[in-house]
Amino acid sequence: MIKKVGWLLGLLVIGLSAYAEESPVLTLDDCVKAALANNPKLRQMASKVDLNKANIGIAKSGYLPQASTTGGYTHYDTSKISFGSFAVTGAAANAFPGIDKRYNVISENTGVSQLIWDFGQTLNRIKSAKETLSAVQYEFLETQENTILNAEKSYFDVMRTQLLLKASKDKLEMTKTHLGRAEGFYEVGYQQPYDVTKAELAVANANLELVTANKDFELAKVSLNNIMGNTGGTDYNVVEIGEFQPAEMNVEDALKAAAENRVELSKLQAQARAAQADLEAKKKGNWPTVSLAGNHQISDTDTPGVGNVRNWNAGAQVSWPWFDGFKTRSEIEAAQASLKMVQLGIEDETLTIALEVQNAVLALGEAEERINATRKLLQESSENLEISKARYEEGLGSMIEVTDAETSLVSARQTHASAIAGYLSAFADYQKSIGVISQGVIE
Questions:
Q1: Residue 233 covered by a domain
Q2: Is 77 a domain residue?
Q3: Domain contains 139
Q4: How far, in Å, are 23, 25, 152, 338, 421 from residue 235 at the CA level?
Q5: Predicted TM-score of the model (pTM)
Q6: Could you tell me how far CA 21 lies from the centroid of its own chain?
Q7: Number of structural domains in the chain
Q8: CA torsion, ordered 421, 423, 429, 435, to nearest 10 deg
Q9: What is the pLDDT of residues 364-413, one digit of tens each?
Q10: How far apart, in whole angstroms, are the C-alpha atoms of residue 22 and residue 18?
Q11: Which range of residues forms the domain containing residue 222?
Q12: Is 28 part of any domain?
């Protein structure tokens, strides 16, 4: 059920005109791979993944030793002290302690600390960072799937407009042939001027349809170029899907597959685990932390009789922020609200996904019925044309009947082409709804 549509009759490469023969032909895989390689949103998400990987390292740093060194240089000069309008200098200044002295002090202070236990605060921060990374990775996969879906739907739109363009060209050639016939019959007196005028109008309408079809074809390729990140021209065609075996599906199986495979649910579940870990870390905010600390200090001075001063100390310390102005309590309330929001988001996303799956299954069934109906219409139009030609050759029918039958056949081909492209687009939506659109594309 989950496999890509099986192409039973193969892929028909368009080659019915000189333009198509000279233009390169892109396959569906070509377009999807180009979109994945060039999509800027995917590159942005990759950077977001790298950012959250770095955040895990930041969280883990709390369990590693913390060390710092501070150095300083100070120059003291007390050779002159003023008291109002009086100044004490020279020998008189020696009577005052610390007066008339110049000396330098160079100091160095190195401290090292190691966290022993903080009742799970750091551990839960690490868990939260890891689950946040998982959520971002699932978000990357979600962006990847959306890119594949957009590329496939755009490709099928190009295929549809390409088929319609080909049908419009056939219709124009047909109306020109009818105009030539009408003019010939008019010259020999077999038809009225009205028949020639009607044929000329048909040619004009066919020309207008061809202009519109060509515009739609070019616009569809521009849209596909945008998804592929292609800034080049639109001088290419795509592979046409002729016939295929419709996929078999079941709503219950589809819902089960969606529950297992949809990355949106996995992303929200990871966010919920991250929010839970963050809540646990916040709950320990007013709990004590135990750590070991050591300090080494050197003070070097050129003051006579003082010299170098060295000291060091080491020991354990307990820090207990038992009151912080209710900051921790507010952080706990905020974390609880965030967790609740994510949990409700999971419920909402579950309902949304179920609705998407059911809509996709119904749309796919409708598209299949449309293909069956247009296939039957195409068969009947083809048979009607054969009958009209036979009646005309036997003198039982008119050329108008043949012309109408040919026009109906071209219209049936256009409708059938649109139905095929619509089914393929609906199938892409179905695969996205059950979370398997990237299978077989992403290794």
A1: yes
A2: no
A3: yes
A4: 6, 9, 19, 51, 21
A5: 0.78
A6: 35
A7: 1
A8: -120
A9: 999 999 999 998 998 998 888 888 878 877 777 776 777 778 888 888 88
A10: 6
A11: 11-71+117-289+323-433
A12: yes
